[in-house]
Write a structure and sequence with these properties.
Largest sheet: 6 strands, mixed
Strand order of the largest sheet: 6-7-8-3-9-10
CATH class: Alpha Beta
CATH superfamily: P-loop containing nucleotide triphosphate hydrolases
Bound molecules: adenosine-5'-triphosphate, magnesium ion
Order of helices and strands: EEEHEEHEHHHEHEEE
Number of strands: 10
Helix content: 25-40%
Oligomer: single chain
Number of domains: 1
CATH topology: Rossmann fold
Radius of gyration: 17 Å
Length: 232
């Protein structure tokens, strides 16, 4: 992807240390990342290296100790929680590592929720949600509650929900981790289609090396910084 494309997300000097009793866990030391519109970037790294922490901070779900995070020309890092939520709602889709579906709402209602919160009328939001569920092969599960879905079905609902608000940036924490090959390929095809057609930028944490060829770039989170991934 060319550097001439508009910036979807910029992180500069992001640092985060967790304090657990008297021990400090320095997870992110100095993370720099520029994501362009339409770009698809994968993040790999060993368990505990801070991938989920980084995604949460980029989405404003957690705060950095230091650094700047620009989303749509606004600095997420220093914004108040309600402003972070507003930026996230307007610009971002998020797929959690453990799906985070609302248990008392059906698959369709979960997918429609971001649009409903943004003020879209139920009928329009649910029509859009139904289209996304169809794309991930879950039309027959639209009226199921999350606890009546399999792990992979829940994950596909979570992917559909992240895409429902037509975000400019999607942050996804192992979105294909519970999926078989066929469904993982469906999710990757949606990512490719949306990046090409709508210029959606994707930052995707994955452990699945067979997926890495589908991304424009692969980065490694190691020792608290992002570096270009070297195969092997
Ligand atoms: N709220 C917290 N308080 C204290 N330590 C935390 C907190 N959240 C995460 N950590 C620690 O920070 C480190 C990074 O965690 P994180 O979940 O970001 O790793 P990860 O790269 O996503 O791992 P995995 O591949 O297993 O999902 C871990 O050592 C974890 O124990
Ligand atoms: Mg994680």
């Amino acid at each position: 992807m060319s550097k001439g494309l508009p910036q979807a997300l910029l992180a500069l000097g992001v640092a985060k240390t967790f304090h657990q009793g008297s021990t400090a866990i320095e997870v992110l030391r100095n993370v720099d990342l520029r994501l362009s519109a339409g770009e698809r970037v994968a993040i790999v790294g060993r368990s505990g290296s801070g991938k989920s922490t980084l995604l949460h901070i980029l989405a404003g779900l957690d705060t950095a100790d230091q650094g700047r995070i620009e989303v749509g020309n606004r600095n997420m890092a220093t914004a108040l929680p309600n402003i972070r939520a507003e930026i996230r709602g307007a610009e971002m889709g998020f797929v959690y590592q453990n799906h985070h579906l609302l248990p008392e709402f059906t698959a369709l209602e979960n997918v429609a929720m971001p649009a409903r919160i943004a003020g879209v009328r139920r009928r329009a939001a649910e029509a859009n949600a139904a289209g996304l569920l169809k794309e991930v092969g879950l039309t027959q599960r639209a009226n199921h509650l999350p606890n009546a879905l399999s792990g992979g079905e829940r994950q596909r609902v979570a992917v559909a929900r992240a895409l429902a608000g037509q975000p400019s940036v999607v942050l996804a924490d192992e979105p294909t981790g519970n999926l078989d090959r066929e469904n993982a390929a469906i999710v990757m095809a949606m990512i490719a289609r949306l990046s090409a057609e709508k210029g959606t930028a994707f930052l995707v944490v994955t452990h699945d090396v067979s997926m890495l060829g589908k991304f424009d770039r692969v980065l490694d989170l190691a020792d608290g910084t992002l570096v270009d991934h070297v195969e092997g």
